[in-house]
Amino acid sequence: MKKIVLISLAITLSVLMSAQGKMDNRKMNNPRHQNRECFQEALNLSVDQQKNIASIRIESRNETKVTRNEMKTIREEVRKEQRSNNPNIKIIETNLNKMTDLKVILIKNKISTRNDIMTILTPDQRKKFIELKEERLKQCGTNMKMNNRKNSNFKGIKAERRGNNDSRNHRFNNNMDL
């Protein structure tokens, strides 16, 4: 009996340690993480700059998380109202307006974070940062073109749906018929 317990404990520990190792590797192999390290190396950031930028990102991430959680809650309320037998359009519109306001907050947060980071950089680092961003956008544009080719059939279906109903709220209008 003791042997079975010890063996199962050993197996459990090995599985947990293996999972932890995979999580660490996944974080290190994350393109965003690698991209951040490349930027730090290319910009030759000082230790103080790295610490300041890290604190700005943490603060921004926390603000973003709160806003996204609010959006998720509102989105769930909208879906719940849409699925009800007698949906209240005023409630749906109010919640959609709240979601729009939260999206604006997210965009402003992103811009503010970028500006805060730019103030930490020296003029030469800013110039290099802009060059790196433009280069990355060109690469992303190429990748997006490839993805668009793969998803072209799906986009055609979406375009057909839009063509059938020109109003912005066509999905909302279609759901009302159910």
Q: Could you please describe the fold and organization of this structure?
A:
This protein is mostly helical and 178 residues long. It is built from seven helices and no strands. It has helices at 2-29, 31-43, 47-83, 89-120, 123-150, 152-164, 170-176. Helix 3 packs antiparallel against helix 4 (89-120). The longest helix has 37 residues, at 47-83. The N and C termini lie far apart (60 Å).
Low-pLDDT runs of 5+ residues are 164-178
Please report which band the strand proportion falls in: under 5%, 5-15%, 15-25%, 25-35%, 35-45% or over 45%: under 5%
Helix tally equals 7
Mean pLDDT: 76
Order of helices and strands: HHHHHHH
**Spatial separation of the terminal alpha carbons:** 60 Å
Q: Largest sheet, described in full?
A: none
For the structure shown, list the relevant keywords:
178 residues, mainly alpha, 7 helices, 89% helix, flat
Chart the SSEs and their pairings.
Elements (H helix, E strand, L loop, with lengths): L1 H28 L1 H13 L3 H37 L5 H32 L2 H28 L1 H13 L5 H7 L2
Helix pairs in contact: 3-4
In summary, what is this structure?
This protein has 178 residues and is mainly alpha-helical. Helices cover 89% and strands 0% of the residues.
